[in-house]
Amino acid sequence: MSDEQGFSPRERRASFTLAGIFGMRMLGLFMIMPVFALYGKDLIGFSPLWVGIVIGVYGLTQAVLQIPAGWLSDRIGRKPVIYAGLTLFALGSVVAAMADSVYGVAIGRVLQGSGAIAGAILALAADITREENRTKAMAIIGVCIGLSFAVAMVLGPVLASWFGLSGVFWATAILAMIGIIMVRFMLPDPVHKGQIRDVTAAPELFGRLLKDKQLLRLDFGIMLLHLTLTAVFVAFPLTLLDAGLAAEKHWWLYLPVLLLSFVLIVPVLIIGARRNLNKQLFQASILVMMLALILMALGNGHITLLALAMLLYFTAFNFMEASLPAFLSMLAPAGAKGTAMGIYSTSQFFGAFLGGVLGGLLFQTLGGTAVFLLVALSMLVWFWLAMGMSNVSKVRSHILPIGVSIENTERREHLVAQLLALPGVLEALIIPEEGSAYLKVDGNTFELEQAKIVINL
Questions:
Q1: What CATH code is carried by the domain that includes residue 425?
Q2: With the CA atoms of 281, 286, 288 and 294 taken in that order, what torsion angle do they form, in degrees rounded to the nearest 10?
Q3: How many domains does one find in the chain?
Q4: Which residues form the Major facilitator superfamily (MFS) profile domain (predicted)?
Q5: Which long-range contacts (CB under 8 A, 24 or more apart) does 258-264 make?
Q6: ∠ Cα 146 149 155 (to 5°)
């Protein structure tokens, strides 16, 4: 049974199925990170630079194809794009599993990244869920992505120790095939198309958003966050090995560290939201990450110090990974969240690619310590830029179907003026072709029922 305030069975099944598909795909992308530097040494052409390229190159094709794949899903449908993306991901996994050189593995990773289905999955979530439940659906997907990363850090080393590097890639191919089966048999077909601008990039908005300094700070931040991630995992597995922790036991460190980091960020997120300290805690997280990277540089031969460094790193990483999309949602102009998220995701994946290449190059020329220290220095630049961030809090978005005719320009402008006059409404935008009103509001003072009365719902 469904009710107006909660998920219907159909929405619940769709949300968890989409989260599972997204999570399995990210699991497949992430599992290689903690193991390739250790288990790829027998591949032809192996070098630290190619370790970085293999770890990060998926981000290049993701960055290039993320927005176009979202547009394509608007034209030919969500499911065909998801099927194609998962097929490419499976093909890339098979290519990498069968490769005997780093070049073949890199080609496989390029193909994996070509299956850029994030936009199509989020758009399908918008199609299947009602507006009042959409935030919940997106949160479920976000949590699943976070969990997939944690599982990958543990499962990757376990699979590699049992089945070798190729076994990790065969596992990712199997995950992709399971995803295809889930799309076919577990996902309901959408009965309508969700609000496009909420999940899909609009080309005409690019110029405006690329000039928005607040959004650019977030784009730079997510780029740098994932740059550090891929750069760190070029060097950290080998640093653990040098400290005396055998490759097959690396998950012994990752598992407790990741679990504890998730425990630690919960009170931080709660305090930030309740006391309006999001900006201050975000800046503190940048400094904690810088400290963690310095400890990694100093921790050669000291397992305890390296474990502490990784705990600090992942606590800061998880907090920022959760905070940045929330900040973006609050700061994006009304009706521009899909475009803002497209630019943000492109920046994220480009950062992953850049971090892999730079991390591999630094490791090859200067060693692991230089990777950690130079990335730590980049945190100072990020901290300086973050000083200009807005301390966002209680800003929410709403999308309401219009219950009156809005073809007339004068009527539309009058309706926008009425909405802007309501307490708590910060921005209002009406898109006639969607029959929707996009509102950006102050959650402390805005009353949704008042807006519904204005637009005759």
A1: 3.30.70.100
A2: -170
A3: 3
A4: 14-394
A5: 258/150, 258/153, 258/154, 258/314, 259/150, 260/311, 260/315, 261/311, 261/314, 261/315, 261/317, 261/318, 262/146, 262/150, 262/318, 264/315
A6: 140
422 and 454 Cβ atoms separated by less than 8 Å: yes
The pLDDT-based confidence of 285 (bands split at 50, 70, 90) is very high
CB 457 within 8 A of CB 403: yes
Pair 387, 424 in one domain: no
pLDDT score, position 444: 79
Q: Which two tokens mark 345?
A: 């995701």
What is the overall mean pLDDT for the chain?
88
Q: Which among 297, 322, 313, 305 is positioned nearest to 261, based on CA atoms?
A: 313
Domain that holds residue 292: 202-393
Contact present, 309 and 395 (Cβ < 8 Å): no
Do the domain assignments include residue 2? no
Confirm whether 1 is domain-assigned. Answer: no
Give me the mean pLDDT over the 215-237 stretch.
95
Strand partners, 270: none
Residue 246 lies in a domain: yes
Location of structure tokens 């705990």: 311
